[in-house]
C-alpha cells in the first residue's frame, strides 16, 4: 500500500512538471480533446472479483488541477461504475460484462411496496384456521366432524409442545429398539406416566388395563401398545356432553382460586357467544379485588357484552341479584357471573360462594345452569384438592383448564377427569380470544402422544 501511494505521488509530481511546460494553445486543444472522452465514459462500472487491489483514485476535474487540465484517465478508471441501487430501483438490466456463463444474464431485480390488501392477506388460505364449535348440532358421520377435529388437533399440537415432548418423547425412548412388551417395559411405562403428571391412580389404571391385554396376548409389539394407551386415555377423558341451553337466560357461575384466569375466560366465552349471534351479559360479583370491576368492564367493551356492576366493597350476592334482574328485563341469552378468587381452604370465603349460589337459585329457579371451575394447568396435582372442595361447596358441573400452552403438566387433565369424574368443557391454549377451545378428547390425546 505504501509503494502504491509513493508511486502515485511521483506520478503527480511528473504531471505537474509537464503541465508547466504546456503552452496555452496546447492546453486549449487538450481541453477540447478531453471533453468527448468524459462524455464517452460509461455510467456504470463493473468490479471484477478477481482483483484484490484497491481501485485507483478518480482524477480531479480540469478546473481543480493546480497546473492545468487532468490527463487522460488510466485503463482502470475507464471501467463503468456498477450503480447497484440504481439498477434495483430503476429496473436497469445488468451490463453485458455481468452475463453468466453460457449466455444467460442475471435476472432483473425489483423492489416494490405491498398494497394494503396484500398486507392484510393472511399467510394461510381463507378459513384454514377458522374455529368450528363442537357444540353445534352436527350429524354423526358428517365430514365437518373430521374437519373440525383436524383443526383442533393442529391447534393442540402447536400449543401443547412441552407436554408432547415430555410424554411422546418418553414413549419414543421407551420403545426404541424393543419389539416385545414385557414386564420391564410396563414398569418403565408406569414411571413415565407418573413423571408426566398423570397421577398415581390414573397411571395405575392405565398400566393395569395394558397389563391385562398383554396377558390375553392382545398386545404383541410396541406400536400396538401405543394404540391401546391412546384408547384408554380417550375413554378416561370422554365425559358427558354439555347440557343444551334450554333456559333463557342461561346462567353460568364461574369459580376458582386467585389468578387462574376467571375474568379472561369469561371474556373469551362471551366472545364465542357474540360470534354465534348471542347476547351475553357479565355480572361483576368480584367486589373485593382492586380494579376487578374495571377489568371486567373493559373486557365487556372489547367483546361487545353488557356489564352489570356496583361500587367496590358491595355485597356480591346483592350484585348478582340485581344482575339477574337486569338480565331478565333486557332479554339476554346468557349470563356469566364473575366471582372473587378464593382459596379453597378458606372456610368463610367458601361460605360466601354458597350464599351467591343460593341467591341465584332463589332469583331464577333451576339456576345456575352451569358451574364451571377454572383450573390453572401449571398447578399440577394440587388442582385435585381444589376440585374436591369447590365441588362439595357448590356442585361443579364442568372444568376449564387454562395455561396449557405454558406447562409440561398437560397430563393432569387425565388425573382431573379420572379422579373427579367431572367433564372438561374447555381448555386454554393461548392468550388470544380464539385460544379457548371446546375440549375434544381424541384431538387432545393425539396431540400429546403423536
Structure write-up:
The chain is α/β, with parallel strands linked by helices. The chain folds into 3 domains: 2-84, no CATH class; 146-237, SRP54, nucleotide-binding domain (Four Helix Bundle (Hemerythrin (Met), subunit A)), CATH 1.20.120; 250-441, Rossmann fold, CATH 3.40.50. Helix content is 47%, strand content 9%. It contains 16 helices and 8 strands. It has helices spanning 2-20, 24-39, 84-90, 116-120, 143-159, 161-175, 183-195, 200-215, 222-237, 262-275, 292-303, 316-330, 347-363, 383-394, 412-420, 441-449, and strands at 250-255, 280-284, 306-308, 334-338, 370-376, 398-402, 424-428, 436-438. Strands 3-2-4-1-5-6-7-8 form an 8-stranded mixed β-sheet, sandwiched between helices. β6, α15 and β7 form a beta-alpha-beta unit. α9 (222-237) packs antiparallel against α16, α10 runs parallel beside α11 and α12 packs parallel to α13 (347-363). It is flat, with a radius of gyration of 38 Å. The chain starts with a helix and ends with a helix. The model is unreliable at 22-140 (pLDDT under 50).
- CATH third-tier fold name of the largest domain: Rossmann fold
Tell me the span between the first and last alpha carbons.
64 Å
CATH homologous group name of the largest domain: P-loop containing nucleotide triphosphate hydrolases
The main β sheet shows up as: 8 strands, mixed
Mass-distribution shape:
flat
Look at the helices and sheets and give the structural class.
Answer: alpha/beta
Count the DSSP helices: 16
CATH-level-2 architecture of the largest domain = 3-Layer(aba) Sandwich
Measured as a percent range, the helix fraction is 40-55%
The SSE order reads HHHHHHHHHEHEHEHEHEHEHEEH
Number of domains: 3
- Count of beta strands: 8
Rounded to the nearest angstrom, the radius of gyration is 38 Å
Low-pLDDT parts are 22-140
Amino acid at each position: 500500500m505504501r509503494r502504491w501511494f509513493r508511486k502515485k505521488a511521483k506520478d503527480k509530481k511528473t504531471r505537474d512538471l509537464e503541465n508547466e511546460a504546456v503552452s496555452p494553445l496546447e492546453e486549449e486543444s487538450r481541453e477540447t480533446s478531453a471533453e468527448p472522452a468524459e462524455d464517452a465514459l460509461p455510467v456504470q462500472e463493473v468490479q471484477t472479483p478477481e482483483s484484490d487491489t484497491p481501485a485507483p483514485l478518480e482524477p480531479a476535474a480540469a478546473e481543480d488541477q493546480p497546473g492545468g487540465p487532468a490527463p487522460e484517465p488510466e485503463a482502470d478508471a475507464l471501467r463503468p461504475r456498477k450503480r447497484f441501487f440504481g439498477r434495483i430501483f430503476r429496473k436497469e438490466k445488468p451490463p453485458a460484462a455481468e452475463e453468466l456463463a453460457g449466455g444467460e444474464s442475471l435476472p432483473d431485480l425489483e423492489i416494490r411496496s405491498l398494497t394494503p390488501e396484500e398486507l392484510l392477506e393472511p399467510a394461510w388460505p381463507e378459513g384454514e384456521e377458522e374455529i368450528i364449535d363442537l357444540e353445534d348440532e352436527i350429524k354423526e358421520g358428517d365430514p365437518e366432524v373430521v374437519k373440525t377435529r383436524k383443526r383442533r388437533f393442529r391447534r393442540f399440537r402447536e400449543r401443547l409442545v412441552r407436554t408432547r415432548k415430555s410424554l411422546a418423547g418418553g414413549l419414543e425412548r421407551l420403545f426404541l429398539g424393543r419389539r416385545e412388551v414385557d414386564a420391564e417395559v410396563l414398569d418403565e411405562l408406569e414411571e413415565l406416566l407418573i413423571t408426566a403428571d398423570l397421577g398415581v391412580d390414573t397411571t395405575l389404571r392405565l398400566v393395569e388395563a395394558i397389563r391385562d391385554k398383554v396377558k390375553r396376548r392382545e398386545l404383541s409389539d410396541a406400536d400396538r401398545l401405543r394404540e391401546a394407551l391412546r384408547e384408554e386415555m380417550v375413554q378416561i377423558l370422554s365425559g358427558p356432553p354439555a347440557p343444551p341451553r334450554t333456559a333463557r337466560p342461561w346462567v353460568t357461575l364461574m369459580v376458582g382460586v386467585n389468578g387462574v384466569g376467571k375474568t379472561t375466560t369469561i371474556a373469551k366465552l362471551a366472545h364465542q357467544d357474540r360470534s354465534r349471534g348471542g347476547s351475553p351479559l357479565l355480572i361483576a360479583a368480584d367486589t373485593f379485588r382492586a380494579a376487578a370491576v374495571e377489568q371486567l368492564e373493559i373486557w365487556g367493551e372489547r367483546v361487545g357484552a353488557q356489564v352489570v356492576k356496583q361500587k367496590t366493597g358491595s355485597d356480591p350476592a346483592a350484585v348478582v341479584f340485581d344482575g339477574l334482574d337486569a338480565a331478565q328485563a333486557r332479554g339476554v341469552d346468557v349470563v356469566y357471573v364473575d366471582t372473587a378468587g378464593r382459596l379453597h381452604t378458606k372456610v368463610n370465603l367458601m361460605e360466601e360462594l354458597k350464599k351467591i349460589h343460593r341467591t341465584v337459585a332463589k332469583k331464577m329457579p333451576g339456576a345456575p345452569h352451569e358451574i364451571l371451575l377454572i383450573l390453572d394447568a401449571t398447578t399440577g396435582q394440587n388442582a385435585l384438592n381444589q376440585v374436591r372442595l369447590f365441588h362439595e361447596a357448590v356442585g361443579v358441573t364442568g372444568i376449564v383448564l387454562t395455561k396449557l400452552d405454558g406447562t409440561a403438566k398437560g397430563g393432569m387433565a387425565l388425573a382431573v377427569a379420572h379422579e373427579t369424574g367431572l367433564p372438561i368443557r374447555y381448555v386454554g391454549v393461548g392468550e388470544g380470544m380464539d385460544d379457548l377451545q371446546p375440549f375434544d378428547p381424541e384431538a387432545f390425546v393425539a396431540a400429546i402422544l403423536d
